[in-house]
Protein: Protein CBR-HID-1
Amino acid sequence: MGAQGSRVDFKQAVLDLTSKPGKDDEQFWDQAWWPDTVNDIFAMIPGEDIRKLRDESPKNLATLVYKAVEKIQFSRHHPANIDQKKVINAIRLLTRITPYMLEDAEWRGYFWSPIPHGDSTKPLAAVLLENLSDLLFCPEFTISHSNGLKVNDLSTIDSCEYIWEAGVGSGNKPPMVALHYQNRSEILKLLLTCFSEVIYAPVSDENRLRWICHFTAVTNPHVLPIFTSLLNIVCAYDPVGYGLPYNYLLFNDSREPLVEIALQVLIVCLDKESQPKTDDSGYQDNYFINYLSRIHREEDFDFMLKGITRLLSNPIHSSSSYLPNSTKKVNFHQELLVLLWKCCEFNQKFMFYVLKTSDVLDILVPILYHISDARNDSARVGLIHMGVFIILLLSGERNFGVRLNKPYTAKANINIQTFTGTHADLLILVFHKLITTGNYRLQSLFDCFLTIMVNVSPYMKSLSMVAANKLVHLVEAFSTPWFLFSSPTNPQLVFSLLEVFNNVIQYQFDGNSNLIYTIIRKRNVFYQLSNLSVDSASIAKTLSGRKSKSANRDEMVDQLKSPTTANPPEFPAAGASSSTPPASSGPSTTAGLAATPALASMTGNVGNWEEKPESQEVPEEWIATQEWAEAWKSKLPLQTIMRLLQVLVPQVEKICIDKGLTDESEILKFLQHGTLVGLLPVPHPIVIRRYQTNVGTNHWFRIYMWGVIYLRNTQPPIWYDTDVKLFEIQRA
Structure:
């Protein structure tokens, strides 16, 4: 009865606040600190009641917030006498009501005003952040004190000695206390809620990151131990534990909720406006980024990389276990991808460490698994973007392309055609699957897929026959006249694919007989592209009957889904001879994302034939013209491929006629020992398109990150039914 009575008292207290002005006695406020769980608080205080309190009784709401902060502050100054239940409920109460205050512009400013009748001119937000930071290292509340003595003042605690987990900056392994994990999680939830001002404020608001800026500033004495605690608690987590099957069903894992919220707070605190300022690292304002950028010990990099890899790979191990569902599966891989991105972006030494060994492949495979698994799920389109952007970042370095030549042994259950080959083959097959899956929302990524292939192509030593066929199929699909003439940006896809072929031919001819053979076998694809008619009449005829973008899109999907058929070799029978190209015969509840950043803005490079980056949006009235088509067709980089065909097709035809060959293995053997030294055009320089940070991509990552956090925090539903401005909430 006692527990039920306290629930009734609390609900009555909230109702009184909406109807009775200025209730200020301590007994009344004490009723607010007795709910048992965070779900009790969320259930007892509906959002409409909070808005009513905010709009009709602002003084009462302000008093409620002051009392909650006061309760937290008292505990900070008297840690030896802390009433844990009251403090936690004060924190939960603020977590419940803060989003409804942040959605209102005037109340956002309220947090940054001094406390009335207070002794300090500090704004309420600063006081709250300082108190919460101190409580993250409060003995017997969130940490275990080494000597067991009671502490009367948290300012005497050296928080660097109480980092939550061994790892970066700490070798101490603290004891595992479930209650401490729960209390840390509640504090971190409130911090995350405070940081969410950015999802309510207009993009033009320069103060939208002020909570994060204040928390991560050097003025926070705990900024280093908080950063390392969050990083270490994430990277040290092993959901499998001792590896006993089904152990997660027998024992409650008190660490996982803490790891998840710690990861979310960490990536949010690594957010900043795009351009760094002064000092050597460029990140002197945000000390989370500053410290991340300064990590340099290889043992720290190893700890971080192994931790991220282990957690990203967890769903693979969980789904491929011999015993169904015997391994615990964690679901915060989207946040992990954001953390990996931040680590690579802000610490180049870390990225170079990742690329230095084949460990980069241990990261690549789970990324490819996740983006392949999400290809038909419209709610996870952002995950695919995030994974592809990470691969684009890595592909800008030579070592990544070189590492891809390591043979691939299937461990992940990736839904692609079976093959025997390297990680380069795996990359091509997954990208081909994503391009041909029929999900039109992935079309904005086609440029990124092909740019990654271009970046790694000079280093691909031995593509499999399966991957070679997929590459030629993409040329076949993207070079159809109607597709080329349908959009001003479509020809760039063909330019990128031809660049892939040229790089392999010029720099990795030896060992790539499978690709050379496929080019020869499907040579008509290249002949037809070379002989494409681009006069006005041909363009009009090609586009006639294609009235709508949706019709174009449907036909493109059908074309992409048609695989390159394994036709028999297109060589003449004995006694016949033809090596001349054919003459032209005429034209042959999800959170919404921001628009995908244009590739040119991400890499700083424009297309092979464009004078300036094209807009992502194609005007409705745009129509292909003869001048436009002639401009890009005259620059198609077909010379190397046409020269290869000119030299090798007669040789292959001759050997087929002379020896009566019909077995492609014999032709492959001939090509393996062939050479084009001195016969091809002068090798072109290798052009690598590296990712460059900019305002547009920063905005995209912020929207994606907060969209994920919004959707993942449903127990309790912190931001549900609030007026979010940063992204659109799409409900079924």
